[in-house]
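Thread: quick sanity check before group meeting

JM: Hey all, I'm pulling together slides for Thursday and realized we never actually wrote out the predicted structure for the chain we discussed last week. Dropping the sequence here so it's in one place. If anyone has concerns about the input, flag it before I start.
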Amino acid sequence: MPNEKNYWTQQRPDGKWESKREGAQRASKVTDTQSDAWAHSRESAAKQQGEAFLKNREGKIRGRSTYGKDPYPPKG
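JM (edit): ok, ran it. Output follows.
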């Protein structure tokens, strides 16, 4: 089940970068640069108290930002 508070930044087949809410069919923002799409994902996730994920060109997660209550707080 998708968590609709989470946003993903990834490269599209046409070379542009998109910010997309988890579970959505369409991107919420499409940009020419990774940094613009990543900024939009972080901003949107912060408003929703969710997480933002950044995928590299190979599709692996290379960055992650958590907003609100951290699901895995460190002990100590």
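AS: nice. The first strand starts at residue 7 and ends at 11. The chain has a mean pLDDT of 92.
JM: adding both to the slides.
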